[in-house]
Request: fold
Amino acid sequence: MRLSRLPLPTLRHALLLPLLALSGLASAAPPLGTEAERSSYLRTGRYEEVGRLCQAFQQRFPRAVRCTRFGSTPEGRPMWALVASQQGVFSPAEARRRGLPVTLIQGGIHAGEIDGKDAGFLALRQVLEGQAAPGALKRQVLVFVPVFNVDGHERFGAWNRPNQRGPEAMGWRTTAENYNLNRDYAKADAPEMQAMLRLVQAWDPLATIDLHVTDGAQFEHDVSIQVEPVHAGDEALRASGQRLRDGVIEALAAQGSLPQPFYMSFEKMDDPASGFADGVPPPRFSTGYFWLRNRFGMLVETHSWKDYPTRVRITRNTVVAVLALMARHGVDWLAQARAADARAMRLAGHELPLTFETSPKQRMIDFRGYAYTRTPSDISGALMTRYDEHRPEIWHVPLRDEIVPALSLPVPGAGYLVPAAHAEAVAARLRLHGLRFERLAAARPALPVQVFRAEQARFGAQSVEGHQRLEVKGQWRPEPRDLPAGSLFVPVAQPGVRLLMALLEPQAPDSLLAWGFFNNAFETKEYMEDYVAEDVARAQLAADPQLAAEFQRRLAEDAAFAADPHARLAFFARRHASWDERYRLYPVMRLDQPLR
Reply:
């Protein structure tokens, strides 16, 4: 039934039915209940409720919960986290001392997709009261962030998620500064992300569970569970990542859900027959970030066309399943993660993938959808898909889920070097990600390094997340360079070497270069007037017959070059002593030999 078309009394009844399965009764919400429970999951509370419940959980369970403020938003709101441990472990140092795995549950990174807040509070209360996953918090520490995007949460409105069924009103996708936090993990622009990364540095969670609601088509499947490392990252850790993913999927299926292990978005927008493709997201996303740290990242996407009580129930079940699996396997998985850290320290010279792609290989799967038609729209003129939720049917569609490396590069033998002029900006980002570096106390003249000079550089046509992105093509080549005192040396012998390469390799999709941090290096600043260039060209042609022959060959073989006066003059300007030798020189270098 299509809930948005039901009269209000019928709508309330329809929303109440999944709640009965969720809580077991339809009476008033118990102590520590949320506005969602009190309203039979018609509404979700405002952010004031998070702070109040954070304190109330600590008062109700003083030996098991601590309410902590880990940051402030640009609009001055507190960022709350609940630390829960039935062993009374409330500090990262104590968790490390006892060898306890840490699970980070994160809700509301997109504050309109707010299932995780209400489901997380429900799951936490039930676990602490022994109603779900009994004893799970004796064998791990839970760090629960009910709402990550706090300012966005308070941009409250009834139509903030037009593709989503319930609650009646919800927050906004982006922050007050209009950052999409789930595009910000690598570049870490937003103050909220910087606070989150400091929380991550402190607690070093073994698993980070990012709770979302997907947009998309209408079908019967109600949740997707994706985990990395499964397709990428440390080989030995991938098997455990798959056990975590499959264990959650198995638990959800046993409770009546229809989970899938891939993001349920069609390969061709609005065309169910095109099927699906799995993939490894880049590190701007949570699930593309944590595997680079040799930790588990899980993306949970309930389906937006399920009503709010159903979505909260499924999200609650997911949280409980994760906590149960971490209680059962977390100590072993933590040992495996630390072994992966040790292996990462020895990756110098080994080839690592920077990007991934889905191979053309496909297999057909049965997918539970609805009958649909595809007809031209008299509004947009486009071919439009319309679904009939009264007529479930099985779609036989392709799935491409074989994922292979697309671009791989060897790890530098020793590390990366960042010249002093860029040291502060790069150091600030490295600190946020917990990556180790040191400053050169003295200048290093003519250091034998590898440099990257871009053969092609293409700026983005429009702003993305406040940046003008940059794509470059080129190769690393040996070249001696002078390094002034104050430059950075960033060793590759550290657990986060994969993350380090993701940030500093210029062709990585979420590198600092790709996000425009070094655009100045790819802009011409000094130039030669055309009349001067004409004289320079004639002098070069007269002095160098080989150059003259090369120029004539370019004119004959390259029509675009021959027709472009600027390119023809640039041919000679690039060979003149006035040419800026740093133009398109990436201001980060690779070092293969240890510094002495």
Notes: The longest strand covers residues 383-400. Residues 213 and 302 are 5 Å apart (CA to CA). The longest helix spans residues 308-344. Residues 1-21, 23-27 have pLDDT under 50 and may be disordered.
